[in-house]
Amino acid sequence: MSQRIFDNRLRPAVELWVAVILLGIAAVLILQPGQWSPLMPGIAVWAALGMVLLALYRFWQGWHILQYRANLKRLPHYVLDADEIPLSRHKLFLGKGFQWTQTHSQRLVEARSPEGRVWIQPGKLYQWARAMELRYEHRPRMQWLTNLTRSSRWWNTLKPLPPVGGDPALHGVGVEDERDTWIDLGDRVAHTLVLGTTRVGKTRLAELLVTQDIRRGEIVVVFDPKGDTELLARMWAECKRAGRLDQFHIFHLGFPEISERYNPVGSFGRVTEVASRIAGQLPGSGNSATFKEFAWRFTNIVANALVALGRRPDYSAIARYVTNIEPLMMEYYAFWFEREGIENWREQVNTIAQNIDPKSLTMALKSRDFKAIAYTQFAKTRDLYDPVADGLRSAFEYDKTYFDKLTASLLPLLEKLTTGKSGELLAPHYGDRNDKRPILDWMEVIRQRGVVYVGLDALSDAEVAGAVGNSMFADLTSIAGQLYKHGDNLGLPELAGHKRAKIAIHADEFNELVGNEFIPLLNKAGGSGVQVTAYTQTASDIEAGIGEKPKAGQIQGNLNTLIMLRVKNEETAAVLTDQLAKVRIYTKTAQSAATDSSEPGSGVEFTSSNSDRITEAETDILTPADLVQLPKGQAFALLDGGKLFKLRLPLAGADPLLPKDMQAIIRWVRTERLGEDS
Ligand SMILES: Nc1ncnc2c1ncn2[C@@H]1O[C@H](COP(=O)(O)OP(=O)(O)O)[C@@H](O)[C@H]1O
Ligand SMILES: [Mg+2]
């Protein structure tokens, strides 16, 4: 069997010795040609030249081995400054990477074998340097020494390993094949899922992708449940660089004073969506399911009445009427009677009200305003019917125990959605001229080819974040639907050249947001140019967020490109590894044996044997354990129709346009957007 099946680079770099010896011989040939080649000294020079060439070749081979070994321990630093990030109209840049093949699995097995490990473990000196740094940490007079061993200069071979953890060999086995890795923009329409545990580089990857989308001139919507200031700052800087600051929108629940306002239930295709967007946030399993259904129905009644009255639903109106439905009911009945052209209804209702006998009322109605009761009785005597009015009446007649159900479920949520500064943000008064904060309108965003940052501050309130995020998904879905139907006719901007602008949606910490509104967005998105990139920690997050396994599966099935950073559990890793084929891996076992001879007179004292045995085994090209050991900022990805790539993502370098902190952005909004004096 050919030795080529083994990579065999974890061994002494013997090529270097050969190179040294060859150079030595060449030196002797040149210095003493007559001695070594007495007949034809001229040949000696040529022979020496040949040896020098061979020595160089061997030297190159040996160097290669040392380099390979070094890369298994520590990868070269990978930082891209803002002006170094490449951009293409047809492709999306992901970083450096190589296609992972059997060769790399083979090298990894060799690197992890006990014989291989010896060559890539940090040496004694390295360990001494680290121990010494600890020991002298508080001794000012020894600082020069610790500074020296910590220095990250190239000459310092003892410098600490980068704080990225994991097993650098995973990328080291392929560094020599590494090149810039791109995916086709066409593939993004099939949506992308990025999985990775906390603090391993998901948000930094989002920054890299968002940067390119902004520069490419696309419509970009970034959902950031945690409200990561760095991401916002990066987007601001990129908009500035691309000359798109006038298209930049900031919605941030954590900074209401500079945020645009948004009515999460203000636009919809069907009125029932209003109730779904609110009740959808309530827990729906077990006992809560009935509460949820009830809350939905109640909200829907209110929303229907508001819309019929020509008023735009918002959280505060819904909260007001859910707790006290009488005024809305009377308003609607009055409107309805007028619409029906009933004469003198006011007098007749008044007469009924005056004559109501409290004893004839049900318990639920006893505490109600008699005037309101009179409205319903009037409609009944006249045999009038209207579905909205009927809904209101049934809500009005519910007894107190029903109301308690609401108190347990819907009211706390509505209270959260309507109180404080974020409450004002979410129920904008369209007529309020004093409030300079713009009102976010998705259709307008799309027309002007906007870039939107949505900070949801989920750490302070996950429910509000979920409600707002999901309403935005729903709004985007309905717009995607319209785009799908009408195509270019909606007056969408054209990109310089030919193509229609795409809508790139990035959803960081996706599990905080995912809800039922999200599934149709993924389904519909294709034809409308919507492309979603979702970033989350584990596969089960999605299920926990949406509450149902089949639906979670549907979401995952709709996210076709998979990028996986370090993950914590094997179940998540299996999302990737389950899709991979098996490969053949070769291992070598050395055997040696000696046997004593039992025949005293034979002259044979013992026999011995040595052999190398090659074993071939079929194993996984990648195991879940590999994904658990990835260093920060590294990933495996299934790209380009299921090809496995190993990726190294760049760390963001210098960017002169980057705002220093949140204050800088707040100042910008204040002066440029709200017209305040600084
Ligand atoms: N490409 C990278 N190379 C090296 N380190 C990285 C890289 N990306 C992220 N990191 C490190 O990981 C930290 C957390 O990154 P972040 O993107 O915020 O993680 P996540 O969003 O997954 O929680 C960063 O502050 C950085 O130190
Ligand atoms: Mg993050």
UniProtKB/TrEMBL annotation:
Pfam families: TraG-D_C. The chain crosses the membrane at residues 12-31, 43-60. SUPFAM superfamilies: P-loop containing nucleoside triphosphate hydrolases. InterPro entries: Conj_coupling_TraG/TraD_PFGI-1, Conjugative_coupling_TraG/TraD, P-loop_NTPase, T4SS_component, TraG-D_C. Keywords: Membrane, Transmembrane, Transmembrane helix. This is Conjugative coupling factor TraD, PFGI-1 class. It comes from the Bacteria. Coiled coil: none annotated. Residues 591-610 are annotated as: Disordered. Residues 507-632 form the TraD/TraG TraM recognition site domain.
